[in-house]
Amino acid sequence: MDLDVVNMFVIAGGTLAIPILAFVASFLLWPSALIRIYYWYWRRALGMQVRYVHHGDYQFCYSFRGRPGHKPSILMLHGFSAHKDMWLSVVKFLPKNLHLVCVDMPGHEGTTRSSLDDLSIDGQVKRIHQFVECLKLNKKPFHLIGTSMGGHVAGVYAAYYPSDVCSLSLVCPAGLQYSTDNQFVQRLKELQESATVEKIPLIPSTPEEMSEMLQLCSYVRFKVPQQILQGLVDVRIPHNNFYRKLFLEIINEKSRYSLHQNMDKIKVPTQIIWGKQDQVLDVSGADMLAKSIANCQVELLENCGHSVVMERPRKTAKLLVDFLASVHNADNNKKLD
């Protein structure tokens, strides 16, 4: 073989080896950095741009795609201890002609975290309203979707600010009062009574606890490598004290049942999406909401747990698009009448 050809293969092999070794090193030594790169990459790939907006000295961080048009904008509220990027798996399957806005909830990721902030559900609703006003998102009524804690906030927002919202999607929302407690809620009450706040199942501090949390929140048993579990924990640990404070705030008497207390005030067309195998918030909550909200559609997903957005992103996107189409077409038909 010609020496130049041999040299070419050696150089090519070395060139390829550098990024491969860099990836392996990142995976083994800095998994948290790899996770951040992953989200950055998917935001770029999906056309989601990150921006900041201020209300006084309070900063909101959000990502968006598209511009307001004749279809309603969609504001997406994530769950407890998550961030705006949790919606990327759903965004992937949404039409590119929709105006999407994903905001970091109060104290999360790029949004201001202040010891003086009111982290109750009412306090979070007011903050999200400030964000909406800053973006002038309510210049025309928008569609609001939230999951878990974000669903709690979204439902109460629709009750407090009915003129802002044209329709609502609640994905396994918190904030309902059940006649009997499931196993997860019973465990939380035991922790409250014993004042063992360090052991809240939704606030892991080790890879083992992270694995347990994933099993609690998901029906699908993901096989997550130890390095990625460690990376997920490393990303969360600096924020765990805040998460504990927030968690205790949203489960106290002032906030725990805010959605339940306000669900009969929700007047806009509403969609409920819930995983039938949800171990965190019982699926019977869907029926509760359907009985209290006049114009309500319920979608129960088989073989799906609490993390609907992560487990069934394509199905979630389809249900959302179909619901928006039905509501939008019905409104247009009314205008023609």
TrEMBL record:
Transmembrane intervals: 6-39
EC category: hydrolase
One of the GO biological process terms: acylglycerol catabolic process
Superkingdom of source: Eukaryota
EC number: 3.1.1.23
Pfam families, A to Z: Abhydrolase_1
InterPro entries per UniProt: AB_hydrolase_1, AB_hydrolase_fold, AB_hydrolase_sf, Epox_hydrolase-like
Compartment list: Late endosome membrane; Lysosome membrane; Mitochondrion membrane
GO-annotated cellular components: AMPA glutamate receptor complex; late endosome membrane; lysosomal membrane; mitochondrial membrane
Main location (coarse class): membrane
GO molecular function: monoacylglycerol lipase activity
Function: Lipase that preferentially hydrolysis medium-chain saturated monoacylglycerols including 2-arachidonoylglycerol. Through 2-arachidonoylglycerol degradation may regulate endocannabinoid signaling pathways. Also has a lysophosphatidyl lipase activity with a preference for lysophosphatidylglycerol among other lysophospholipids. Also able to degrade bis(monoacylglycero)phosphate (BMP) and constitutes the major enzyme for BMP catabolism.
Protein name: acylglycerol lipase
Source organism per UniProt: Vicugna pacos
